Each structure stands twice: as C-alpha cells, then as structure tokens.
Amino acid sequence: MIAVTEIHVPEEAEALVLECLRRGALAQGPRVAQLEDEFAALCGVDHAVAVGNGTLALELALVVADLEPGDEVVTSPFTFVATVNAALAAGATVRFADIDPASFNIDAAAAAAAVTDRTRALVPVHLYGRPAPMDELAALADDRGLVLVEDSAQAHAAAIGGRRTGSWGLGCFSFYATKNMTTGEGGMVTTSDAGLADRMRVLRNQGMRARYQYEVVGHNWRMTDVAASIGLADLHVLDERTEARRRHAAALSERLAGIDGLVTPDPGGSDVRHVFHQYTVRVTGDARMDRDRLAAALAEQGIGSGIYYPKVAYDYDCYRSHPGVIIEPMPEAERAASEVLSLPVHPFLSDADLDRIGEAVRSLLS
Asked: Could you give the angle at which helices 82-89 and 54-63 cross, rounded to 10 degrees?
C-alpha cells in the first residue's frame, strides 16, 4: 500500500530523547527553549511559545486577543474543526467567509465582506500548505483594527515573497504526528510582539512567572522536553523533506495533466512557497467517476488517499445548533468539500510510487 502519509522519525531524535531520559529532564526545560529559538528563526520572528498541541496554540493566541462576549472571529468554513473549536473556547462568535476555489484558502474579498462592527479577530487558515493571501488579509486586519491569527497548522516554512507564514500575525502551528514537522503532539505560537510572548508564557504555565508566583489565572499548556527533542530533530530535516514534497507535487501534476474532470493543485505564483502538507485534487462532475468511487478504486489498487474535509465546518449538528456559530451559505467551500481528494505526496515516495499513482488515476478516469 502506498500510504497517504508516512512517519519517519529522524535518527537524531533517538539521541536527543535518550539524553533527556538519562538526565531525567522530561518536563518543559532547556530543550523546549532551544526549539522555540530555532523555530522563531525559521519563521523570521522574535519569539515562539511552545504548547502541548496545535489547538492550544490557537486557543492561547485568541486568549491574548482579549475577546469579550459577543466578539466575532472571521475564519474559513473549510478547515479542520480545531479552528472553530478554539474560537468557541475563547468565548467568541464564529462567522465564516467563503474560500477561493483555486487555493482552498479564505477569499480576501469574502473576508472583508464578512467583517462587522463586532468582529475582533481574523483567522485565515493556510490549508494544505499553501499560504492564504496574507498581504490582503493583513491590510484588512490593520484597516479594521482586527487581531490577526494565522492557523498555520499545515504550513510549516510556507512563504509568500520569502516571508514565512506565522510572521504576519500570531502564527499558530501544530506538530501533530502527521504534520510536515512533528513533536508527536505539540504546537507553537509565533510573534514579534515581546509583550504578547511574555503573556503567553505566563498563561501556559499556570499563570506563574516564577514558581508559586501567580500573576493571572492560567493553564497547564506546556510542552515537554521529550517532545521538543523529537521536534528539534524534525526541524533539522524540515527543509530537505519540504523540498521532496514540492518535487513530488510537481511530478504528480505532470503525470495527471489533461485528465477530464481532474483539477490538480494550484501552487500559486512564483513568489508563493507551497509546502504541500497535502496534494489535493478536485474530482469534478466532468470526471468519469465521482470522488468517493475514485478513492475506493485507488484503495483496491493499493494506493491510499484522504478526504480533507468531507464537510464544511458548519455542516455538523454540534455546530449547526451552537449559538456561537453563524451559518450562511458558503457555496465554494461546500463544493470543495464534495470534490477534494488528497493523494500521497509525502517525502518518502519513490519515482516508481509516483508513476504508479499517476498511472492508476489516469487509467481510472480516462
């Protein structure tokens, strides 16, 4: 089976984790601080604050946004529900803006139209590894006085014009096991605002600046040194593995070109660095078979795939009935949810794997 994702822990991780175990330093400590420093440098920001997972990163960013009851957060409806859950956990009301069909990211004009007098924060999602239109969204946030929070869970080291994701606003990254970079479970918030970084470090540590010196009501949102050790090893191979993803994406697009009803990913312009957390095609109504049948047929041939995501966020009963979720039609997001299929693009594919994927899809749809 060619899996849609594979996890290969770098050899360096074994030595780093073993060192932690031998010295008995398991909880948050110097290894977390090292990961924070190196990840901040990667993103081109002054500070990075490590937490236990990517959802906590979003929650922490929205806590320091100082949302009040009734404040709205504008975000994409086509995302993993952690984006919505974090906003609701912060006490916000969620309002959606439709997506750009080419990038799957929130459309800047739709975001501008969704902003109301009650909007306090704008949360674009860099879906599948392609950066959202951050210049336009940052200008919108600045013009309307909004806190800008980047959901960068799938976009480690993605960039626009050399500027990395996580450097426009409060960047929220996930280090879940299947992400482009992992700590097993973990997350990070990036910023160049020293005051916000300080607040976040106090909040994640039970409100303590020093042991038993409580300044605010806080949380235990810390990362362990063991997790940070895995993350450091993965960070050290991130560029190499990202370039492999980008090569594989280009190779797949070449092999899948010209198939009726199949739309390959738009990587963006020459100034966009798409890092291909997923290689996501559209299977439209012009295709020989629909998306679900194609996925099943590929599985029969030993080729994995994934549907990210089969529904828009508001198309679940728990959100439809939630008083904090504003539901309006989002036709582009709904259409994407019915058409998207992610094919293997991970760094460990061989040329033979890429040939096999391309030949299988072409034979099924031609």
From this structure: 40
- Residue from 240, 235, 283 nearest 263 by CA: 283
**Distance in angstroms (rounded) separating the CA atoms of residues 182 and 42:** 15
Residues 6+ apart with CB under 8 A from 89: 59, 62
Let me know if residue 6 belongs to a domain. Answer: no
Residue 25: the pLDDT is 81
> What is the model's pLDDT at position 347?
98
Beta-sheet pairing, 93-96 with 72-75? parallel
Return mean pLDDT, the chain: 97
Residue type, 225: D
CATH no. for residue 47? 3.40.640.10
Q: Which residues of the chain have pLDDT under 70?
A: none
pLDDT of residue 24: 87
The angle at the Cα of 96, spanning 162 to 321, to the nearest 5 degrees, equals: 145
H helix or E strand, kind and range, residue 136: helix 134-144
Q: Is residue 1 part of a domain?
A: no
Q: What pLDDT, on the 0 to 100 scale, is given for residue 314?
A: 97
Judge if 347 and 336 occupy the same domain.
Answer: yes
pLDDT confidence of residue 274: 98
* Residues paired with 174 in a beta bridge: 187
Distance (Å, whole) CA 13 – CA 238: 13
- Largest alpha-carbon pair distance within the chain? 67
- The number of domains in the chain is 2
